[in-house]
Amino acid sequence: MTADERALITVRVDTDDDLVGARALARRIAEHLRLGPQDTTRVATVVSELARNALRYAHGGAVTFGVTPPSLPRALRVTVRDHGGGIPDLDRVLGGTYRSRTGMGVGLAGSRGLMDAFHVDTSPEGTTVCVEKHLPTGVTDADVERAARDLLLARGADPVRELQAQNHELMDALAALAEREERLRGLNQELEDTNRGVVALYGELEEKAERLREANQLKTMFLSYMSHEFRTPLNSVLGLTRMLLARLDGELTPEQHKQVSLIAGAAGDLLGMVNDLLDVAKVEAGKSDVHVSTFRVDTLFATLRALFQPILTNPDVRLVLDDARDLPPLTTDEGKVSQVLRNFVSNALKFTPRGEVRVHVALVDGGRAVRFEVRDTGIGIPVEEQGRLFQDFTQVRSRPGRAGGTGLGLSLARKLTELLGGTVGLTSEPGRGSVFHATFPVTYAGPEVQGVNGEVPAAPAGEGPSTSTRPLVLLVDDNEADRYLLGALLAREHFDVREEGGGEAALRVVRDAPYRAVLLDLSMPDLSGLDVLARLRADPATRALPVLIVTSQVLTDDDLARGGALGATFHAKDRLYQGDTDGLVSTLWAAVRRAASHGEDAAGHDVSAE
Amino acid sequence: MERIPILKLGDLLLVTIQVDMHDRLALTLQDDLTTAIVAHGARGVLIDISALDVVDSFIGRVLGNIASMSRLLSAETMIVGMQPAVAITLVELGVTWRHVRTALNVEQGMRRLRASLDGPRA
Predict the structure, then answer these.
(1) Is the ipTM of this complex over 0.90?
(2) Which chain A residues have a beta carbon less than 8 Å from that of B94?
(3) Which residue ranges form the domains of chain B, and what is each CATH number?
(4) Percentage helix, strand, coil, to 5, in chain B?
């Protein structure tokens, strides 16, 4: 074993399979080096013996194949090294007198006889056995190199070993796969659990959302009912104060006049707030109808100017409305546009101590939309407050002094504008003033475009019969204040009025006198207005009697359809109490006249202009 | 686990070793064969080692043991087809077999086994 030995290959022997491999390798190398069948078998057998010893007694070792240098007689040299405890009785073993515990022992001694050179070096640190087999003459360096090359190429190419190795790999891969599958299954399970959790959470969320929706609806209903309930007594207060101020009940002292005016003012403010609330509730509940008509902006401005003139008490502030005569007429809900502008203007006036509030109007978007701007020189609004301003119940906190109202005005303005397909916005700078703007489509593109206003019968201005021919009407309302106010109103309009406090009572008396029309409240404790109406229509004697439903209730589509089908017209109490009686009076007169022309004693009740 | 197949031919067992046996496989064969002798009541065992290039002391010892065990189980063992180089090496190695009969090939071995089994009865 010298340094210039031509090493061919070294293999480890740690298992039985390695032992078989080393044996096969020895055979292959011997064949390459043309050792002949007998020597090949000898070499293979010796390698088998030595490798087995290393495996059995030292738990493994290494087998090195090499060729001795050319200077010596050339030989195949096999070196087997292990790091076991050495061979204790080497001499006896080699002498052939030793028998191992396993009954073996011929291996080492036998091997010696099979080889040309045999050398054992053993110590407690390990054993090295080196054996040599002479190569036949004629084996050249080229043969050795070819053997080395072939070994390099064929390393691991032994089909059986290869198959076993592949088998092992396959088993490992299968085991890894099984493990991965197990992990995947675990992961899948986890995912499924998570998924179930998510589904459960989703359900919970859905439930919460549902509850929120219900709560919101309840809120809207509450607002609607509450404002309605508030409006009834408020309207009574307003009506009564108006009667007092009109001296219908006698003269007032200047002090009383002032006090009653204050009451009327406060009630008016309160009614405004309640109306705002109700409007918000209506828009939110989707119950706000759009009444489309075609109107001129300058007319709208004239109304606004008239409306605000009385409340312009601050001499330092001017209200300027642009000239809008050149603008084309708008086809949308005049009432709502007006409400938005009123809102902006009254807001601007409230927060402008001096200077002017200017209402500017212009066509935008190629004439398809109209943009109103209400520009003031007031205190302005900080940027951080601007975003929230159009939300419910929002008031600018930094504004000094009182900020009257519910905080619903701008929110309502936004909702109404959006209802008409428009947008609102504002630009403002603290100390420099604000510009609120609302843009509406020139023509409302909503679902129901119809000219409602055109159907209202022309008001019989100044019309009224003499006392002797006053038509008799029956007024049915459970609220005494309402009966009083409506009665006074009808009396002023030249009607004879008989009052009843309930539906049943009204039905009992309706045939006692030649009534020309019936005014019905909707909600009454004993019988609702619609029920009374139905019973009137069911009776041939009262079937043709004109019925006007006068109510402060928010009407549902259902109410309107039912009443309309039975030939009734609807009139809002609050509008009557605000002095807007034209609709009721003209409808009443038209009904009375129509009934008279159809009735048997038409001539006696005919009405003519005074 | 790898095993060497044992074929039953009447009351004979035929084992053809076609792979280079590792030690454990040899011991397994020893166990399997003795079990099979008892199970089938075999009276003869034919072991064909013509495919073995190397029979070292361990395998030689195992084959000898198989023969001894079979004999105890009243079966004759015939090892056939040993390559000449293997035979020479076994002798040089100092492995000696007792109770083992040999033949050059399966056919000859079969004939001889049959003869010795049937002989006394005939």
Answers:
(1) no
(2) 96, 106, 109-110, 113
(3) 6-106 (3.30.750.24)
(4) 45, 20, 35
